[in-house]
Write a structure and sequence with these properties.
- This protein has 237 residues and is mainly α.
- The chain has 2 domains: 111 residues, no CATH class; 114 residues, ARM repeat domains (Serine Threonine Protein Phosphatase 5, Tetratricopeptide repeat), CATH 1.25.40.
- 63% of the residues lie in helices and 0% in strands.
- The longest helix is centred in the middle third of the chain and has 17 residues.
Length: 237
């Protein structure tokens, strides 16, 4: 198997840099002062290209991947997370334990919603026992918005396996979170539960929807039949 170095990876990323696209991405990911992605820097490379590079560079040594995760460049951090996911999925139990630990030690670099969403499910969710969500509860109680998003997005791993208890537990914890990105993520995960089991989704919502932020509620009920959706929106469910 061909080996790669972090120098080669970085050189390849920079050859694909697109300044105009970088400017567009910096606006899209809210990098202005006071916004959630403040001071993040972009090369201007789209995710499909990063996914292609992740396949090519999958043999990159784990210590080099970690160095990439700590990069100033958003795309390099994204690529590092894609590599961690790939190495986790192909790795031994010892490798998976190591990658899970590395991820938790470096959450400050998983610092935008897209970075959370490409990784939390596969590294944190996959490493969580659905009967013991104490780690997710700890992350969900964090002052860091990205750790809170990791907590709820990690549960997508179990939603896909028709195990909804982790999602409902963390959704309850984050029910009145004031951050828009958490409200959207919680609503999204509740919608995913409802796509598979509307009865469980509604059982959760019916005693809570009046206390939920409107954004969270709208995301959660988006796939319900229109008449039922309107009942929730009017407070008549």
């Amino acid at each position: 198997m061909e080996s790669y170095t972090i120098t080669e990876l970085r050189r390849e990323l920079h050859t694909r840099a697109d300044p105009q696209q970088a400017a567009d991405l910096q606006r899209y990911f809210k990098t202005a002062p006071g916004e959630y992605g403040e001071n993040d820097r972009f090369l201007g490379i789209r995710v499909p290209e990063l996914r292609r590079l992740a396949k090519e560079y999958r043999p990159l040594a784990l210590d080099a991947v970690v160095e990439s995760l700590r990069s100033q460049w958003h795309e390099e951090r994204c690529l590092a997370l894609l590599l961690l996911v790939a190495q986790y999925q192909k790795g031994s139990a010892e490798t998976r334990d190591s990658i899970h630990g590395i991820y938790l030690e470096n959450t400050r670099f998983v610092n935008n919603w897209d970075l959370v969403d490409v990784s939390a499910e596969h590294i944190v969710g996959a490493h969580t026992d659905p009967n013991d969500v104490s780690l997710l509860v700890r992350l969900g109680g964090s002052d860091c918005v990205w750790e809170r998003r990791i907590a709820i997005m990690a549960t997508l791993h179990w939603i896909k396996r028709n195990e909804f208890a982790p999602t409902l537990r963390i959704a309850d914890l984050l029910l009145q979170d004031t951050h828009d990105l958490i409200q959207k993520a919680v609503g999204w995960m509740l919608r995913e539960v409802g796509k598979r089991d509307q009865v469980q989704q509604e059982a959760f919502l019916i005693t809570r929807y009046r206390r939920m932020p409107r954004t969270m509620l709208r995301y959660a009920i988006e796939r319900l039949p229109e008449a039922r959706r309107q009942q929730f929106l009017r407070g008549e469910a």
